[in-house]
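FAQ

Q: What does a record look like?
A: Structure on top, sequence underneath. For example:
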């Protein structure tokens, strides 16, 4: 299992474009992928509307948990995508 912590720098937070790209990665992954705000409930990353509803804003922390046979590869893709937020 891989856990990746992120801090949002983008003034728009985790908005639709990166959330859609993130959900796309999650949908083609063999691993289970969950996203969680600090102190919140984990959400399945394949469910883009649930990810958007989390309302992750600028200056907030969140964590992504990846578990499965392709977790190393998928973790790297997610980090490359969301590391710019």
């Amino acid at each position: 299992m891989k856990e990746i912590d992120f801090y949002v720098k983008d003034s728009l937070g985790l908005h639709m474009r990166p959330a859609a790209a993130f959900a796309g990665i999650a949908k083609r992954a063999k691993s289970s992928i969950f996203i969680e705000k600090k102190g919140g409930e984990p959400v399945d990353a394949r469910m883009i509307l649930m990810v958007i509803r989390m309302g992750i804003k600028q200056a907030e922390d969140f964590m992504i948990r990846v578990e499965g046979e392709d977790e190393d590869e998928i973790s790297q893709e997610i980090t490359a995508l969301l590391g710019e937020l």
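Q: Is there anything notable about this one?
A: The chain has a mean pLDDT of 94.
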